[in-house]
Amino acid sequence: MSSPIEPAPVEIPGGYIRPHAKYPPTLKSMMRLGTITDYGQRQYSRQGGRSSMFGGHAYYFFSDASCEDSGDPAVSAQSNSVAIVMDPTSPLVSAYLSVQHSGTVDPLVQLTDEERHLEAESDVKVMVRAPGGMVETSPGVGWVFWEKEEQERGDRRHCGVGVAMVNADESTGELEAYRGGGELLFGAEEPRVGSFCSIIEDDFIYSWGHYGIDVLLARVPARKPWDRGSYTFWNGEVYVEEWRAATPVLKDVMHGAVIKSGLFGAGREWVVVGCTQWADGQVMMGGAATLEGPWDLKKVCAVGGVDWIYPHQWVFDEARGELMVSWNEGKPAVVVAGRLRLEMGEPTYWKEVSINHCSLAIRQHLSPGGPEVATICARCAVNITTEGRWVMPGFAAPEDVVPLHLRVEGINQESVDEAAVLLRWKIEMKMADERRTADTAEGTRRRRSSLARALDRILH
Prior knowledge:
alpha+beta
């Protein structure tokens, strides 16, 4: 007699799901890659280092960049600057697209004529920063949220937040930002919308920004981020117009980014990477099913710097559990990068066993949770679920409908194969039993019919 777990004569569809990083994240290794340098070989002191993909190019955003090679680094300092990564395979080298002879970098978001006049006629220094990076809403076109500060005799005051349109020349990578008249969207006492990061999803720009030590989430239609009245804020359940009703989505986080990532697999595609407000050099990570969170951030490792920790998705392969992060360290400040490698989970193997052709009785008998399926799960250390929808045999399945089947998943391919064959064998045995029962019933019916005819002849 043949074994019930011999391979079925019909190939059972199956496959392999690549593993993702374990969650909560566990560090396997961290390699220091080096300092992000200037292609022109000038020495710059700079903070920040967030990167954005825009117009097919990668760019670094820096704050307070000053040329150490100039006669007076303080004079050459720019509150916002952008450098392009010319070769993504060499992420530590970037180039400023507009540099003066002295080494002073031209800012992306420029001062208005009125702000320049204020600086010329007073002791006020106007600083415009763009710590949240750019968000691309259509190829080569997007927006950047900027923050304005004024400094006078050592006293700094936050003025508010505005937004500028950005255009990229896709061939050269050159960027141009249009700030208009420098109008503020949010005032000094309102949330710093976009200061943490911004992304686009489903035709909305989602912008995270600080309000005190908390991070709030705002969203606005991608077609009109300049319209203050179009902004709504997450209150923990829905988006509302009043920012005072907003609920913090992150706490005690200073710098970082929210990214859409496959690092932790399905169910945690929105990942936060950043640092705490305590400037302790800890890389914090967390995943969530939605971009509103909630996130439970975990410490992954400590780096040499203290703050300005950012992820850079475009450098390494997330499918291998790898991610480049950057941070600031030293005086004068430099931006340093490292490669995180996270512990990976187990791979998943799968097989699909059709039950669409089975009778209702068999489909019910082999439902997950039933004793026979539970026995197979326990024996083979697999998980079995029902997928798809029953389609009447002989009829084509409607569009986007998968015929009913049992899906077997496990971390061992041989166990998954064995479980699938056992299921197929049980289906075949039960269908054979149904045929025998039907044949017996038909034979009994025929015998009864013959007897009835014989009696009818005798009586008549």
